[in-house]
Amino acid sequence: MSEVPIKPSVTVKYTQLFIDGKFVDAASGKTFQTLDPRTGEVIANVAEGDAEDINRAVAAARKAFDEGPWPKMTAYERQKIVLRYADLLEQHNDELAALETWDNGKPYQQAVTEVQIYIRLMRYYAGWADKIHGLTVPADGPYHMQTLHEPIGVAGGIIPWNFPLPMFAWKVGPALACGNTLVMKPAEQTPLTALFAAKLFHEAGLPPGVLNVIPGYGPTAGAALASHMDVDKLAFTGSTETGKIVHELANKSNLKSVSLELGGKSAFIVCEDADIDKAVELAHFALFFNQGQCCCAGSRTFVHESIYDEFVEKAKQRALKRSIGDPFKEGIEQGPQIDTEQFNKILKYIKSGVECGATLESGGERYGDKGYYIKPTVFSNVKDDMLIAKDEIFGPVQTILKFKDLDEVIRRANDSQYGLAAGIFSQNVDTINTLTRALRVGTVWVNCYNVYDAALPFGGYKMSGHGREKGMNSLEHYLQVKSVCIPLVNPAWL
């Protein structure tokens, strides 16, 4: 692209580690570069945390949990702090969104929406703080029996680069609502908004040490957090491959509780009764949203044979019309991929699809001559055994497969190591009911896609992970359940 990138209306304020309520340099003094994916140029140099810094952050979190006021506060007081934080976030909405677009490459209006999602999540979890309670259990004898739900202690969170702020909220929200303290490691590609968010939390009154943020790399900072003996719970969102490593490190250390939200290769099933124009648009959104960098992207588009050819042609035309360019420019639907590694990986998969005999309908190459832009790509005549139909590409590559009947598409959709999400496009209630129950995935969207709600749990079957983010189910990961039994003398009732 020959046009000059738009200058962001934001400055980078925070680039150090955030430990015990203060910004500090890494113990090693090292920094790393965070890059503008529009150009590959340096935005800022960020402190590079490693094992020593994780130790410092965990020590601060442990002290804040064992000695500090946070878990000893009334739930109502904790709730008020989180609500004040949400108000502060609203005041900085545009600044956070601009920082996110600059560091990540997603369209600015999408980033604005994601900041609002972040705020909504924080208010949702603030509402849970004073509603976490146990039970009084009827006993078979003269005993008072009850359960207590207690905070688990020090939680660790490792989050990805594709949705930095929402992923931050998915970990921080339930952990704080339950009275825990945290150490968070944002992705090295997108550390800037997490540091900003942590600073705002302390402006809202969060005590020092309750939330610590350590930018750094997976093999150093991430591995140190996963294997730390004084971390009681770990939440990870990222690739299945890295999830396996994180889980192994956790098991080999102190058997800390682990929740994993991992990769996917989600099926989007278009039935024969579909309104083709609407189905094409929804399938397009299901795949190309966020530059295709979405764990639950509808990356296997199954289309009934009776409408396949028409669907493919219209999907091609829609991809050709997709606006791609500087994400700060109004009307842009697709920005750059996150970095050169992801950029090259996607192009490698596209080449594989061509070599394996799939039909390249559109795209398939770089867009422009600067930054990490890839043209929206559509493949037809895709077979189940092709890499583009099996592997998580994590990019703007739509693969369209043909099917004959429900039994066939159920079998093929479920024939995957993943089980994160699926989409169904049909007007037949019997078809919808059959598919929603037969698909072995954690989320099924019917005649919609990528609809998220703070109260709706999200997570996967099979190698898409275990545990759930969001909703009341996520609170379970940050609580211990204690049973208490006390003898009763001359009780009036049992």
UniProtKB/TrEMBL annotation:
GO BP term, example: carboxylic acid metabolic process
Listed EC numbers: 1.2.1.3
Record keywords, A-Z: NAD, Oxidoreductase
Residues in Aldehyde dehydrogenase domain copies: 23-484
Lineage top rank: taxon: Eukaryota
Any one cellular-component term (Gene Ontology): mitochondrial matrix
Chief localization: mitochondrion
Stored Pfam families: Aldedh (PF00171)
Keyword NAD: yes
Active site: 261
Location relative to the cell: Mitochondrion matrix
A GO MF label: aldehyde dehydrogenase (NAD+) activity
Gene3D superfamilies, per database record: Aldehyde Dehydrogenase, Chain A, domain 1 (3.40.605.10), Aldehyde Dehydrogenase, Chain A, domain 2 (3.40.309.10)
InterPro entries membership: Ald_DH/histidinol_DH, Ald_DH_C, Ald_DH_CS_CYS, Ald_DH_CS_GLU, Ald_DH_N, Aldehyde_DH_dom
Class in the EC hierarchy, top level: oxidoreductase
Catalytic activity field: an aldehyde + NAD(+) + H2O = a carboxylate + NADH + 2 H(+)
Family listed: Belongs to the aldehyde dehydrogenase family.
Role: Possesses activity on acetaldehyde and glycolaldehyde in vitro.
This protein's name: aldehyde dehydrogenase (NAD(+))
